[in-house]
Recover the amino acids of this structure.
């Protein structure tokens, strides 16, 4: 399946989940500045929202929104237990975590810092908000391997991807020992290493392409 992905984007979480499930994805890298693919295809013809990720399903339809794509993939292989069964309270707990990461950390916290138009005074508010939310997350992770306890789930792939942006934006997490240990633990998984390596390699290709002189 073709998977429309962005270097350093939230779509990394989906790639991690796919690798956990050993689902091969055909990575299609999106230039989010120009909304184009490497071959010049207009990405808006694939996802009119212009956001990543997007997954092309076997029937040719497109599925967007990372949290939904992760559920779709995990439900395809329930034996790996990346998402508890429908109707169980454990599944709703995973979805509770997914909502927290998407709303409190991703959209409500980090997105204002990524936008160049965000005023400086609001950047300070966003950074303080993130510090408080990450402290809360740290407290929840005390004496826990993963968000749900001993079992790695799609919520961990999601949380790791977004929480790691604290390093990009120099959010002070000093003293958040449980959180730092959690990020190191998740980051050591083979699926995470492979997904991050693929993104780094694409980032290097992008940098090399930008450095090439234009042909007149």
């Amino acid at each position: 399946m073709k998977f429309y992905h962005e270097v350093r984007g939230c779509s990394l979480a989906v790639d991690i989940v796919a690798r956990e499930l050993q689902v091969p994805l055909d990575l299609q890298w999106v230039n989010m500045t120009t909304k184009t693919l490497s071959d010049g295809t207009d990405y808006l013809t694939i996802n009119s929202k212009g956001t990543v990720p997007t997954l092309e399903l076997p029937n040719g339809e497109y599925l967007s929104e990372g949290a939904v794509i992760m559920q779709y993939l995990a439900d395809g292989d329930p034996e790996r237990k990346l998402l508890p069964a429908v109707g169980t309270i454990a599944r709703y707990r995973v979805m509770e975590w997914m909502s927290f990461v998407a709303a409190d950390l991703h959209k409500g916290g980090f997105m204002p810092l990524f936008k160049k138009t965000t005023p400086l005074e609001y950047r300070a508010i966003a950074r303080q908000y993130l510090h408080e939310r990450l402290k809360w997350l740290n407290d929840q992770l005390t004496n826990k391997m993963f968000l749900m306890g001993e079992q790695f789930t799609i919520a961990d792939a999601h949380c790791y991807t977004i929480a790691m942006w604290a390093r990009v934006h120099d959010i002070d997490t000093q003293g958040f020992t449980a959180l730092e240990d959690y990020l190191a633990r998740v980051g050591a998984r083979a699926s995470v290493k492979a997904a991050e390596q693929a993104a780094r390699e694409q980032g290097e290709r992008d940098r090399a392409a930008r450095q090439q002189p234009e042909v007149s």
User: Anything to note?
Assistant: The helical segments are 12-21, 66-75, 89-114, 120-141, 154-163, 165-168, 177-187, 190-211. Residues 19 and 191 are 5 Å apart (CA to CA). The chain has a mean pLDDT of 96. The beta strands are 2-5, 26-31, 36-37, 54-56, 62-64.
